[in-house]
Amino acid sequence: MKMKIQTSFYELPTDSHASLRDSLLSHIQNLKDLSPVIVTQLALAIADLALQMASWKGCVQTLVEKYSTDVTSLPFLLEILTVLPEEVHSRSLRIGANRRTEIIEDLAYYSSTVISLLMTCVEKAGNDEKMLIKIFRCLGSWFNLGVLDSTFMANSKLLSLLFEVLQQDKTSSNLHEAASDCVCSALYAIENVETNLPLALQLFQGVLTLETAYHMAVAREDLDKVLNYCRVFTELCETFLDKIVCTPGQGLGDLRTLELLLICAGHPQYEVVEISFNFWYRLGEHLYKTDDAVIHSIFKAYIQRLLHALARHCQLDPDHEGVPEETDDFGEFRMRVSDLVKDLIFLVGSVECFAQLYATLKDGNPPWEVTEAVLFIMASIAKSVDQENNPTLVEVLEGVVRLPETVHTAVRYTSIELVGEMSEVVDRNPQFLGESQVINSMMGRGWKGSSGDHLPCPLPAHRQGLFGNLPRAVFSSTTLLRCIPAPETCLLLLPFPGTALVLARLPLEKISECLSELCAVQVMALKKLLSQEPSNGLSSDPTVPLDRLAVIFRHTNPIVENGQIHPCQKVIQEIWPVLSETLNKHSADNRIVERCCRCLRFAVRCVGKGSAALLQPLVTQMVNVYRAHQHSCFLYLGSILVDEYGMEEGCRQGLLDMLQALCIPTFQLLEQPNGLQNHPDTVDDLFRLAARFIQRSPVTLLRSQVMIPILQWAIAATTLDHRDANCSVMKFLRDLIHTGVAND
User: Where does it sit, as one GO cellular component term (predicted)?
Assistant: First the structure.
């Protein structure tokens, strides 16, 4: 009913509006004791009807007069009055700007009626917690709409009740949250402080009284209440930001507001301080625009305290193993800290702050997790430090290079990130590149390209010699990694992306030689595995060397001008026989075949049209293996080949022959009972391949006999309940139709 009113109300004859309204009001009165969810949906239906039904004048007055005298009807009356202001700006309703303005004016006119009702409800509620929650939610909704008279509200007992509830230690979590939400809505509503001065003063003084209650919540380890208080404190600072910046320490610019946020920053849970990040961003932005040294100096001490608190929050657990995670919640928090530090560092002075942080490491002997967190903050600000003739930076670089072997992996990882941010210092101190220790430090212990990303292109002459050590360092590091019990694949790949990034920045004539040397170790490993007898009990799994080759090809992207031979072309042609033999040997193993196809995919992408010599033998082998074993990754690899060569006149017929040959076993597989449902990957990759043909050489496919069955299977697969497969089918059909419309 709610959805019909939201989306199709215009279909209803005008003379039936009143009867629908009366029916809905009758329903909500009869069903008020059922599930709250039903009451909410009916309340939304009534609110949406009232907003669209222009003939229902003064709906608030009508509802209050009809239901306010019956205590049992108050809960659903409050529910309607809560959702009504929320729905005014709903995108689901088809109402124009003029009607919205008319509604807001009408609600503003009757807002005092609502406040009087809420006061009556408070008197009747007594200690009924559920009723108080409904009252606070309703009040917050009207604050959010911005129609309450601020002078009237400043003297309202509702406001003092809110702070009374928030000050009491015994307040339940649900009621505490409702009261906090309401105060935040009130603070948001008075963003224009000057025009709402009486209410602004009351809210300002009320929030400042909550510090003791916050400390009590911390003592009781009640995290929900702590988070609520921090939200309220943050909203207070957001509302009075202009006053804080323009008149710091005076009136509504009282800096006790910042003290409240810094108290929250001292809480051991990082989720608490994270609530205030947006305010600190905005404060930094305002101060940067103000550009007043006197005002900046007032805030310097506050920002210093914040940075020290953030460094503490960035500490990993003492029992953490390995490198810091970057994709979990804590990793994302650290990234946000890094961004915030970069935005605020101008207030403290990057050189001074960097030197102070380094001094804490140099003068003391902190635990590894403290060291790592300090290095992380230093990496955030290193770029903003003047890197020319700065002895502290040189000393830091020297300290990182000479880290002892026993240092925690996370410390080494973050120190390498720091070196990456100090690329100018590295350039000015090439003596460090000559030390094998820096190469070993980076390559053997997890250089994932963090420093490689900062290398200039092309590589300066004094840094080209660096690559001579890299294949040896990679070889020694991979030997070391093989000794780790049950190593994870990601760990076994660590040295390669960074190496490939350096490789791609060498002069073209050197890339081929160095790439060959880098790949040789993996090719030797594959040859050794191929020569092993399956019966000797040793593992013949080639996935690790295949994955390493894939990573090398994926990250080696040199800039090649028109007419130049791609430097990787020769190397890929040389290793093709080994890849081909590996594919044949393991043709029945889907996991290994997928790794082979992935390696070939990146090899083809690496050299582009330079891999033309491989096209015929590769396609022949793909078709032969696919006839026996329907691995869908061959269809995916086929789509890559069509993408690269589909516009080449001489390749089109060969690619079409490949498609037709791959389709025969594919259609046989899909014709089995529940074939589409059982093989969604095959459907996905088949239509990815067909879509590439439509994009690159549509006429070739449209003229072929295989087009009709492909289209029939596309229509059959439109009902397939598998996200990726269905998406590929729809993209194929869309591209097919679009090509016909857009291309004569």
Answer: nuclear envelope
pLDDT digits (tens, 9 = 90+) for 503-538: 666 777 778 888 888 888 889 999 999 888 766 656
The token duo for 169 is 């230690």
Give 576's contacts (C-beta < 8 A, 6+ positions apart).
614, 617, 618
Helices (H), 453-589: 461-464, 470-482, 489-492, 495-503, 508-531, 543-555, 569-585
Q: At what angle do helices 36-52 and 17-30 cross, to 10 degrees?
A: 160
Q: Which of 188, 166, 297, 274 shows the shortest CA–CA distance to 238?
A: 188
DSSP characters over 601-618: HHHHHHHGGGGHHHHHHH
Q: State the DSSP code for 306.
A: H
Residue 490: pLDDT over 50: no
Return the structure tokens found at 370: 């403290």
99 Cβ neighbours under 8 A, 6+ residues apart: 51, 54
Specify the residue for token string 């997890």: 446
| Spatial separation of the C-alpha atoms in residues 515 and 502, rounded to whole Å | 11
How far apart are alpha carbons 73 and 724 in whole angstroms? 50
Residue type, 57: K
Tell me how far CA of residue 202 lies from CA of 67, 133, 199, in angstroms.
32, 22, 5
The tens digit of pLDDT for each residue in 202-250 reads: 999 999 999 999 999 999 999 999 999 999 999 999 999 999 999 998 9
Report the run of H or E that residue 220 belongs to, with start and end: none
Q: How far is the C-alpha of 470 from the C-alpha of 668, rounded, in Å?
A: 49
Three-state SS sequence of 83-125: HHHHHCCCCCCCCCHHHHHHHHHHHHHCHHHHHHHHHHHHHHH
- Measure the CA–CA gap between 558 and 500, rounded to whole angstroms: 10
Tell me the two tokens of residue 686.
């088949």
Nearest to 692 by CA among 626, 621, 635: 635
Q: What is the dihedral of CA 325, 330, 331, 335, to 10 degrees?
A: -160
Helix spans in 251-292 (H): 256-265, 270-274, 277-290
pLDDT (tens digit per residue) in 59-84: 999 999 999 988 889 999 999 999 99
At residue 74, the pLDDT reads: 92
Instruction: Report which residue type is found at 545.
Output: P
Comparing C-alpha atoms, which of 264, 266, 236 is closest to residue 252? 236
Distance of CA 100 to the CA centre of its chain: 35
Instruction: Give the length of the chain.
Output: 744
pTM of this structure? 0.68
Residue 55 tokens, joined? 């003939």
Helices (H), 559-651: 569-585, 590-607, 612-628, 633-645
Taken in order 625, 629, 635, 640, the sign of the CA dihedral is: negative
